[in-house]
Design goal:
- The chain has about 110 residues and is an alpha/beta fold.
- It has one domain (about 1-105): Hypothetical Protein Ychn, Chain: A, CATH 3.40.1260.10.
- The chain contains 4 helices and 5 strands; from the N terminus they run βαβαβαβαβ.
- A 5-stranded parallel beta sheet has the order 4-3-2-1-5, sandwiched between helices.
- It is globular and about 35 Å long.
């Protein structure tokens, strides 16, 4: 199965759970992609806390070969630039993720 995850939140608990789901899917032998949209494009600014080790989850997701993309328009609106976390993408890339995924969930 190919799982598409659309992450529109910068709430640490939402982000943490989205990546936990992606990691679980990858460990079960599935494919998983996360597309950061809206406030989700702020992923690189979210600070780890005692309860939510987001940087650890993102690193594990990427190590398991999960695909991570960020909306270029969303990141530019926030005056951010492309970073080491993930490449800038487009709505066409989001559409392609949706079209090729067996299931799509939104956080």
């Amino acid at each position: 199965m190919k799982l598409g995850i659309i992450l529109q939140s910068n709430n640490p608990e939402h982000v943490w759970n989205a990546f936990r789901l992606g990691i679980t899917a990858l460990k079960a032998g599935n494919q998983a992609s996360v597309f950061l949209l809206s406030e989700g494009s702020e992923l690189d600014t979210i600070i780890d806390t005692t309860n939510f080790d987001i940087s650890v989850k993102v690193a594990e997701f990427k190590a398991l070969k999960g695909e991570l993309l960020v909306c270029g328009t969303c990141i530019k609106m926030r005056h951010h630039e492309e970073n080491a976390v993930c490449p800038i993408s487009t709505m066409a890339d989001l559409l392609a993720m949706i079209e090729t995924s067996d299931k799509v969930v939104t956080f």
